Amino acid sequence: MSGLFDLTGKRALVTGANTGLGQGIAVGLARAGADIVAVGRSAPDETRGLVEQAGRRFTAISADFSTTEPIGRVVEEAGAIDILVNNAGIIRRADSLDFTEDDWDAVMDTNLKVVFFLSQAVAKRWMAEGRGGKIINIVSMLSFQGGLRVPSYTASKSGLAGITRTLCNEWAAKGINVNGIAPGYFATNNTAALQSDETRNRQILERIPAARWGRPEDLAGAAVFLASAASDYMHGAIVPVDGGWLAR
Ligand code: NAP
């Protein structure tokens, strides 16, 4: 049974692996046996230490995913990979009446456009090599719900859930599994403003059946599952890891 989830000999490219959910996912995949290629704009030193402690190889590639410009170089430098985790993402908060075009474009570019074109570049490579692979998109509760004061974030994550299904429809028969993980409310930099707002923090905690914020390591199980042979017949699914939020 454990062989189903074993990632020994696999290489996973994880974007935004220096902190937060990306770090939790990278370390989880490494503990299941995968070597990690961390791609992002901040040095992933802490993640390197944790991955190497798990006995796996770690490669860092520096790239700013506010545009698609670095994608070709990243795929080239990464070399052979088996798993792509599209995790890097940003959020901008403002009332919809005041929301700026800059806050719209920045979020849509990083969270949606870059994710699509990075997935395209990796899939082209896999298809040229006649092989498949696993793509895991990190979506959100706001792939299902509207949220408040985060219009471009909701648009990007709802769009990414849709693109997850589009890519599934086009690539499943080529042996590429495209699935998503929808984290609930996790304590990271992304949610710092919510955690430090006493009222919002209380409202959020009251609504989570598990009665606590998620921790990055809570995503490891779903990530290992979607990266491993255990999910070979799963395509186009969005797996919530949300302490029960959506059940409420
Ligand atoms: P985080 O701690 O802010 O981490 C975001 C990661 O994305 C960081 O590694 C960040 O790098 C990277 N990133 C952002 N812009 C980038 C760019 N232009 N180029 C390269 N890397 C960039 O937030 P997080 O909560 O771990 O978020 C990870 C993913 O989970 C995001 O897609 C987010 O939308 C999603 N998510 C989070 C939650 C939650 O509750 N926390 C819930 C649902 C979904 P830097 O450190 O250099 O900024």
Summarize this, please?
This protein has one domain (2-240): NAD(P)-binding Rossmann-like Domain (Rossmann fold). It contains 8 helices and 7 strands. The chain has helices at 20-31, 45-53, 71-78, 101-128, 151-171, 192-196, 198-207, 220-227; strands spanning 11-15, 35-40, 58-62, 83-86, 133-138, 176-183, 238-241.
Topology:
Layout: E1 11-15, H1 20-31, E2 35-40, H2 45-53, E3 58-62, H3 71-78, E4 83-86, H4 101-128, E5 133-138, H5 151-171, E6 176-183, H6 192-196, H7 198-207, H8 220-227, E7 238-241
Parallel strand pairs: 1-2, 1-4, 2-3, 4-5, 5-6, 6-7
Helix pairs in contact: 1-2, 1-8, 4-5
Bound molecules: NADP nicotinamide-adenine-dinucleotide phosphate.
The site of NADP nicotinamide-adenine-dinucleotide phosphate (NAP) has 26 residues, from α1.
Explain this structure.
This protein is about 40% helix and about 15% strand. It has eight helices and seven strands. Strands 3-2-1-4-5-6-7 form a seven-stranded parallel beta sheet, sandwiched between helices. The model has no long low-confidence stretch (mean pLDDT about 95). The structure holds NADP nicotinamide-adenine-dinucleotide phosphate. NADP nicotinamide-adenine-dinucleotide phosphate binds near residues 65, 188, 189 and 191.
Average residue pLDDT: 97
Task: State the major sheet.
Answer: 7 strands, parallel
Radius of gyration: 17 Å
**How are the strands ordered across the major sheet?**
3-2-1-4-5-6-7
Structural class: alpha/beta
